[in-house]
Amino acid sequence: MKFRSSGVHRFIKDPATPWDQKLKLARFAWQSEKCFIPNKDQVLINWACTSITQASKLEIGQDCVHQLWLYLSDVLGSIHLQQLINTGALFSLQANFSIAVIEFLEDSIHHKDHLTLVLKCCRYILTYPTLAVNLTSNFEKLAQLTVTLIKISVTYVVETGELCEDLKYVLEVILKHYQSSLVKHTSARKLLVSTQENLLIPSFQLLGETSSDLLSIQDQLEVILSMSIFNRDLHAGYVDYLKSLAFKHVKPTELKLIILQIHHFFEFLRDVVNSYEGQSLQCIFGAFPKLFKLFLGSLKPSDDIAFTFLCKMCSILNICIDPIESVPTAEGTMETNQTETSKPNDLINWDLALPCVEQMLGIAFKHNIYHVASDAADGKPVFTWLNDLLQKLLNVDLELSSSWYRCLHHMVDLNHLLVEPHLKDIFAKSLLNVPSAEDPAKTNFFDHVLQVYTKLRQFDRFVEVLLVCVRETEISSFDWLDSFQNFPSCVHGLTPGLSLDVWRLFLNEISSNYIQKLKAVDEPPAKKRKVQNHAIPVKNLEAISSLSKMFILELPLINICSMALNLKIVKELMMDMKTDLLVPLLKSDQVNQDSSLTLSTFMLSYAWGEANLLLRQHTAYGVDEKLSLPEPLKHGDFSYLHEYVPPKVWRASSSKWVEAKDRRLDAVMILLSFQQVCSLLLYEDTDDTTVKSTIKQIMGSILSYSTDLKISPNVLWKGQIEQLDSESFVLYYLEMLTGRLPIMLPFLTDSQLISTASIFIQTVNTQDVTKNNRAADIVIQFLRSPVCLESRQFQTILMSVLLDETLSAIQQSLKQFPKKGQKLKPVFEIAYDKMWNQVAENMLRKEENDHEMWQNVQLVTKVICSYEHGGGKSFSWKQKEIDTVLNALQILRFVPLEHLMPGNHVRCLLVLCFLNHVMSQTSDSVLQGVPGCLLLVRTSLKTLCQVDLRGSFLELPTGCGLLKSLSSSLMSQKMLSGCQEDELQLRSVTHDIMSALLSAAYKSDNDTVVPEMSQWLLGELRKICKTAENQKNVIDQQNSVTSLLALLSVFVKQATSFARRKNNDQKEVLKELDVLADSALHFIEYLQSEDVLNDWYKNKFSCPVLKKDSVSGETSELSKELMSENLLFCNLLEMASVLLRYYADVINISEEAEFPMFQDKWSSQLLPLLQNILEAKIPTTTAIVKRIMEFFRSVCFVADASAVVSSHELEKMWLKFVECLKYEYVEEARLCGQMILKCLDSAKLSTLLADIETALTTQSCNEIKGLLMALKIIPLTNLQEESWQVLKQSTPQVLLSLMDFLHSLHPVTSENVDTVCSAVDAVVSLLIPGNDLLPAKVAMTTLHIVHFVPLMDLPAVHFSKCFTVLFHLLDTLLLQYPKSVTSSLPSFLEGVKYLLNSVMFRGREAIGGSQEKVQEKLLLKCAEDMDRLLTLLASHKEDVQKVIVVLVAEYVRQLQKGTLHPAVKKSLGNGLNSIVSICDDKSLSLLGATLPDGLKEIYKGFYSDYKKYFKYTGRV
Fold first, then answer.
1. Nearest Cα to 1446, choosing from 1506, 1385, 1373, 1379?
2. How far is CA 186 from the centre of its chain?
3. 821: left (phi over 0), alpha (psi -120 to 50) or beta
């Protein structure tokens, strides 16, 4: 019961009560239901608001004020208050509380805790409309609160980079209220004044920030500024002000007051720009483009007004002169604008102004306001203001920024004539002698200028300006060439006439302004004549030569010379270039010692030579001038193609700079050398000795440049010869060599091929496998090319050099490991030191003599076999040796190892075996940690081992040693990454290696392989079992057990096949195998013991099994232990399967008395394994399902050979087989199911079919998946006659149940479509045997299934699957029951029409609605299936020709509905034409006459194509 607590209220209001006590009482009063005060809730809220409002008057301390805000926050956010307001209770705040909120917000800007508390209260207040009125009803207070919140937001963003959640919410809500109040505001002028004085600067600061949290707030601010500064009522004022109109009347009017206020607004902006600095000024500058955009969007001004506004904004930024001629005064008159002109460039803040101007120019171009710049009387554009702005930009004395280039870009967009007079200054300022920086804006600008002049057919004017600029500027850098990346594409777009004119421009420029100066310097002055000082502008000449070369190489000369007149002009230009440029340049080069002059000469010569070759090949150019080679060319002699100077002149110019090592000259000389080779191959007989000698010498000189290459990683080259240095020359050299090598390979000598291979391997060896290396990438790309892979000669040499490098690295390590004195257990009795020293000396030997080669093989194999006993020490690898080995492995990926020469084959095999042991046996090997390294070694080993070796080394006594070493490597392999794919691949590859080696050993004459390997495996079995007995857990050795099981499987499988082939030694081999198999069975029995795998059967199989996602590549949350146990179980099943196959073979090929009784082995060792599998829950992994299927097959083989497997066990195997199919249908499933069915007797088969029929009517859609897949296998099994009759009797009822099940799935959706397809597949399987299994009447009832599946409505991903099963249904019916189909032809044709309509609907180029497109590959497969069905139907001509024309009509009707994809139309063409070919002429004529008018033209075109391309006419 409540009691009256008047004392509480009195104590709260009593000034003598301490504030902490007041707060406690207030909290008690709010929370306690027993405290009764009239209108308690409103009283307490009023008390808190009054206390906060009068805090200074009441002298409340800061801590108590903080607690008051906290109390008010708790009250406003309480559920109690929310419930009261929701029930309709009215609450209010004191009128002056909003003032307190604003004051506290302003005082708390730098006190985050207090500010957060106040903002939280504001958020609660704004949540309730009745309380929010206090903050939003008064416009002045709302404006003040808005400004305060914006200032707080700016401070927050500057300090933290983002807004707190409460501040963002409160600001968004307040801005919405402020925006609503603006609509109600009546005076636009007063609104402008208020915004200018209070809101403008904070808004600018917030608009200039780039935080993502502010996007929505900035949008609201822009709307507010648009409504206040650019209100529609201010439109006339802005127009008159920007036009500088004079007043007719002195008396002030509202319009004049507006104009005066607009003037004050712009002056206010000018004062802000001049007074602010730092971050605030940057934000204000950033807001100017948004202000311009708001002006255009709000007032929709005319173009001249918008352009004047742009000029005004730029004048405020102090960049340009104020465009306003007269301004209003306070008295309402107009006077001349006294604003001073634009500031000098050195006083303008260009860092901030340039981005602002650039954005405003971009906005102006987007709104098409540039044409108002025309101010001349004749209407021609003069662009006075823009010219002044451009001049300002050109006078900027700072480092050019991206905004500078974008400003020029916009001006080119406005009108290229604006920029054209200043192009020379732009080139001089921004292009030449300016170090290149990675600035996309710069590149985009020059590309844009190039494209504009190309499109306007004024490319020659651009080139003229560029040539003048290059001539008058002192060139010191060639980085400017990077800005002309699109120069080649622009040259391709020129007209033939313009191309020839520009070519002439280049020739005249070099001849007039450079050749003349060179001649004046070269010639001695005449007597009595003052010697003039002619400075030779060689750098400028080099720049012009680079542009000329680039231009000539990109000219489409073949197209240009297609006209005889142009060919004549080209001949003249080629002659002028040769006589007026190249010859004088070469003569001057003889007397001048300047590398730039030589480089210019060679570049122009190369361009002339390329044009010469191209014209000779494709035009009549040079027909009368035959090339000749009287004697072999020497190094530096390019006179074969360039015959205009003697050979000695070329040699003198080429040899002059050899010692200088100028890589640019070397690069051009390489180009000229390759050019000579190409010309020789084109115009000379390659069998001629002079030609061969010349090519050999030229290639030798090219390869000589590789002697001092400085190969270093992370080198960049931008593609210009002029920018080459000693490091980037490597990239150029490799690109030239790999690009031209394909045509040179047939003419290279062995020594040159060795040099080339050495260059490539040296380059690859410099790379770090963990980093990118452009040089190595170039080489590897060539090694992967078809040309390199198909050149056996080069592959042989490459492999020899690669092995030499690798063996040298291994040799260095062999000398240092193991150290003398370490314990070693040699396999053979030879001196330890002698063995290692001999290996170190003989690893590099390449003898092809069999005896010596196999001696080396034997010696190295001994080392490999004994390595594992070296005490666990790793080699003393140096980083250079590590890189050599790793990079050699990378190259091996691209070498066709199948085609190696015998010597390289064996050496490569030994190197790989050696590396395999280094990475497998040594735990701290530096090579082991490289990802994929061991996998790469074993993949290469697999390739080599699968190729027949000449004189197989497995015939040697050391052959088994190598096998055992590889086996030991597998046994010691660690689970490096748990269940990752690389680990599984590694195991799979290793098994393939063992299988290939064992197979090779068994094919050889080495009879010791089986006994030795059998004894080794027995020893490993005993070792593991002994360790497991001591540790009482074999799972701790999972890796070794798994590997041993895999080895046993491989060995027994290969040895069994070996026993079948060798009849003479069969008994001896089988004895060895029987001992090993018996031990393996005991090992399986041990693994099946209760302490080892029994718990795992019960627990682990019930867990969700790890499965890799094919899309994301991620794995589910299972530990690697589970995966390794699954792998152990897989290998256990594989071993059991191999043993069962082995015993099945033994039973078939041997006398039972010679072997132990198999019955005991089955019941004691193998049957428990089968029972465990039959009782366990199978996990959903493909690997385990495959192994179980294989194990079941092996059990069936034994059941077929002996009577040890009971029928009950076979029946349970079938049930487990169906359960496995529920998870995944693997390739082994069909064979496994058929084997089980063959072993079942007829009674069990009958029971099985009855169970299937029952399951079809009782089981759910998800549970029946495996049963449907199993049902597909039954009719395709070759059963015995008695079983077949049982199947034949039961099949009709099974089909009926299957049809009922299909009907129960209606409607077909994405969730059950897979089950529907499986059911239809099962129906097709029952139809395949034909009348032997199902009578025709029953079979034809399946026709209606076609219409059951909505092909046109299903998602695109399911279309192909559904279409395929329906196609198989119709196709099977037509093949197996042709007579029944023809008797029910209308129904069958309806099904065919349904499939045709669906494939044509999905095959349209544009599908309407929300339909997705089917993948093109799948769609074409469906169209091809449809084509086969139509062709098969057309083969029954006599039965269908009278009504088949309906398919033609349907095809034409579907063509009208949409354009068919060409590939689909082509795929359907053969079948449809076959249908038309069996129709008689009367049917086709009747069809053409009865079709609607809209279809007649389509049919006419279709039939015309048929007659033209398909119809047989009797002639070719």
1. 1385
2. 59
3. left
1201, two tokens:
């050979």
**Percentage of residues of the chain with pLDDT beyond 90:** 3
CA dist list (Å): 1342 to 338, 511, 1250, 1376, 1398? 97, 89, 21, 13, 20
The overall average pLDDT reported for the chain is: 75
1336: tokens are 């025709």
> Do 782 and 738 touch, CB atoms closer than 8 A?
yes
Measured distance CA(1271)–CA(1284) in Å, rounded: 14
Long-range contacts of 54-59 (CB under 8 A, 24+ apart): 55/100, 58/15
Give me the residues paired with residue 327 across strands.
335
The residues facing 419 across adjacent strands are none
- Sign of the Cα torsion 11, 17, 23, 28 reads negative
Under 8 Å CB-to-CB from 1151, ≥6 apart: which residues? none
Distance, CA of 555 to CA of 618 (rounded, Å): 14
In the structure, what pLDDT confidence band is assigned to residue 832 with cuts at 50, 70 and 90?
A: very low
User: Residues 691-696: what's their mean pLDDT?
Assistant: 84
Tell me: pLDDT of 564 over 80: yes
996-1048 pLDDT, tens digit each: 766 666 666 556 666 666 666 666 666 666 655 554 444 455 556 666 666 66
Tokens read off for 874: 């790793």
Q: Among 501, 543, 880, which Cα is nearest to 723's? A: 543
Query: Which among 747-751, 949-953, 1407-1411 has the top mean pLDDT?
Result: 747-751
Location of structure tokens 């010679």: 1154
Asked if 1193 contacts 1200 with a C-beta cutoff of 8 angstroms, the reply is no
pLDDT band at 1367 (very low <50, low <70, confident <90, very high): very high
Report the SS3 class of residue 684: coil
Helix pair angle (1207-1223, 1265-1273), 10° resolution: 120
Q: What band does 1159 get if pLDDT is binned at 50, 70 and 90?
A: low
Interval 1456-1474: pLDDT, tens: 887 888 888 888 888 888 8
Residue in the block written with tokens 């009509």: 1449
Q: Given pLDDT bands bounded at 50, 70 and 90, which one contains residue 981?
A: very low
User: What's the whole-model pTM score?
Assistant: 0.65
Beta carbons of 597 and 541 less than 8 angstroms apart: yes
Q: What is the CA radius of gyration of the chain?
A: 46
At CB < 8 A and 24+ separation, what contacts does 814-822 make? Answer: 814/839, 814/840, 814/843, 814/863, 814/875, 815/840, 816/875, 816/876, 817/870, 817/873, 817/874, 817/875, 817/876, 818/870, 818/871, 818/873, 819/873, 822/870, 822/871, 822/873
Asked if the bond preceding 1307 is cis, omega within 30° of 0, the reply is: yes
Q: What is the pLDDT at residue 621?
A: 84
Q: What is the pLDDT of residues 1221-1259, one digit of tens each?
A: 766 665 677 788 888 888 888 888 888 888 888 888 776
Cis amide prior to 818 (ω within 30 degrees): yes
Give the orientation angle of helix 278-299 with respect to helix 235-243, to 10 degrees. 110
Number of H helices and number of E strands within the chain? Answer: 71, 4
What is the CB-side half-sphere exposure of residue 1099 using CA atoms within 13 A?
7
Q: Please provide the DSSP assignment of 597-657 as one string.
A: HHHHHHHHHHHHHHHHHHHHHHSSTTTT-----SS---TT--TTT-TTS-HHHHHHHHHTT
The first and second tokens of residue 725, run together, are: 């240095």
- Of 400, 291, 392, which is closest to residue 341 (Cα–Cα)? 392
| DSSP states along 373-421 | G--STTS----HHHHHHHHHHHT--S---HHHHHHHHHHHHH-HHHHGG
Read out DSSP for 1061-1102? Answer: H-STTHHHHHHHHHHHHHHHHHHHHHHTSIIIIIHHHHHGGG
